[in-house]
Amino acid sequence: MRGWRRGSSPPASPTRPRTCDGSWSPSSSSSRSLDLKKLPSVSETIDWARVLVLLHAAQLDHAMVRDTLNVLLKFESDIEAVQPQIADLLLKARREAVPVR
Q: Structure pTM?
Protein backbone atom coordinates (compact mmCIF):
# COMPACT_ATOMS: atom_id res chain seq x y z
CA MET A 1 0.00 0.00 0.00
CA ARG A 2 1.26 3.43 -0.87
CA GLY A 3 2.22 5.55 2.12
CA TRP A 4 2.08 2.69 4.58
CA ARG A 5 5.26 1.83 6.46
CA ARG A 6 6.01 -1.50 8.05
CA GLY A 7 5.40 -1.36 11.79
CA SER A 8 2.58 1.18 11.52
CA SER A 9 -1.11 0.45 11.31
CA PRO A 10 -2.31 0.02 7.74
CA PRO A 11 -5.05 2.43 6.72
CA ALA A 12 -8.67 1.35 6.57
CA SER A 13 -9.87 0.21 3.18
CA PRO A 14 -13.29 -0.60 1.73
CA THR A 15 -12.67 -4.29 2.31
CA ARG A 16 -11.08 -3.96 5.76
CA PRO A 17 -12.54 -1.10 7.82
CA ARG A 18 -10.63 -0.40 11.01
CA THR A 19 -12.50 0.02 14.25
CA CYS A 20 -11.56 2.83 16.60
CA ASP A 21 -9.91 0.45 19.07
CA GLY A 22 -7.35 -0.46 16.42
CA SER A 23 -8.70 -3.91 15.56
CA TRP A 24 -10.01 -5.02 12.20
CA SER A 25 -13.70 -5.60 12.16
CA PRO A 26 -14.50 -9.16 11.15
CA SER A 27 -16.43 -9.88 8.00
CA SER A 28 -19.71 -11.67 8.24
CA SER A 29 -18.17 -14.88 9.63
CA SER A 30 -20.35 -14.66 12.75
CA SER A 31 -23.50 -14.55 10.66
CA ARG A 32 -22.48 -17.74 8.84
CA SER A 33 -23.37 -19.81 11.91
CA LEU A 34 -26.98 -18.56 11.77
CA ASP A 35 -29.81 -20.39 10.03
CA LEU A 36 -30.49 -17.97 7.16
CA LYS A 37 -32.18 -18.35 3.78
CA LYS A 38 -29.12 -16.86 2.10
CA LEU A 39 -25.76 -16.50 3.77
CA PRO A 40 -23.87 -13.28 2.99
CA SER A 41 -21.59 -13.73 -0.01
CA VAL A 42 -18.13 -12.23 -0.33
CA SER A 43 -19.50 -9.48 -2.58
CA GLU A 44 -22.24 -8.60 -0.07
CA THR A 45 -19.63 -8.49 2.70
CA ILE A 46 -17.47 -6.15 0.61
CA ASP A 47 -20.52 -3.99 -0.16
CA TRP A 48 -21.27 -3.80 3.57
CA ALA A 49 -17.68 -2.82 4.33
CA ARG A 50 -17.86 -0.09 1.67
CA VAL A 51 -21.06 1.26 3.22
CA LEU A 52 -19.37 1.35 6.64
CA VAL A 53 -16.44 3.28 5.15
CA LEU A 54 -18.77 5.72 3.38
CA LEU A 55 -20.63 6.27 6.65
CA HIS A 56 -17.30 6.92 8.42
CA ALA A 57 -18.07 4.16 10.91
CA ALA A 58 -15.42 4.40 13.60
CA GLN A 59 -16.73 1.22 15.22
CA LEU A 60 -19.48 -1.31 14.84
CA ASP A 61 -22.22 -0.65 17.32
CA HIS A 62 -25.76 -1.97 17.59
CA ALA A 63 -27.35 0.94 15.72
CA MET A 64 -24.81 0.90 12.87
CA VAL A 65 -25.24 -2.84 12.31
CA ARG A 66 -29.04 -2.63 12.55
CA ASP A 67 -29.19 0.28 10.09
CA THR A 68 -26.91 -1.38 7.50
CA LEU A 69 -28.01 -5.00 7.84
CA ASN A 70 -30.06 -4.79 4.65
CA VAL A 71 -26.81 -4.43 2.67
CA LEU A 72 -25.47 -7.69 4.09
CA LEU A 73 -28.68 -9.72 4.18
CA LYS A 74 -31.06 -9.81 1.24
CA PHE A 75 -34.18 -11.39 2.76
CA GLU A 76 -36.40 -9.55 5.25
CA SER A 77 -36.89 -12.78 7.21
CA ASP A 78 -33.09 -13.08 7.61
CA ILE A 79 -32.85 -9.48 8.80
CA GLU A 80 -35.64 -10.10 11.32
CA ALA A 81 -33.90 -13.29 12.52
CA VAL A 82 -30.55 -11.53 13.04
CA GLN A 83 -31.77 -8.30 14.67
CA PRO A 84 -32.40 -9.82 18.13
CA GLN A 85 -28.91 -11.34 18.03
CA ILE A 86 -26.92 -8.22 17.05
CA ALA A 87 -25.58 -7.61 20.57
CA ASP A 88 -24.35 -11.20 20.89
CA LEU A 89 -22.80 -11.14 17.40
CA LEU A 90 -20.98 -7.88 18.17
CA LEU A 91 -19.63 -9.29 21.42
CA LYS A 92 -18.37 -12.39 19.62
CA ALA A 93 -16.83 -10.27 16.85
CA ARG A 94 -14.98 -8.10 19.38
CA ARG A 95 -13.57 -11.19 21.08
CA GLU A 96 -12.36 -12.56 17.72
CA ALA A 97 -10.90 -9.28 16.44
CA VAL A 98 -7.17 -9.24 15.90
CA PRO A 99 -5.51 -6.05 17.20
CA VAL A 100 -3.38 -4.11 14.73
CA ARG A 101 0.11 -3.26 15.93
A: 0.64
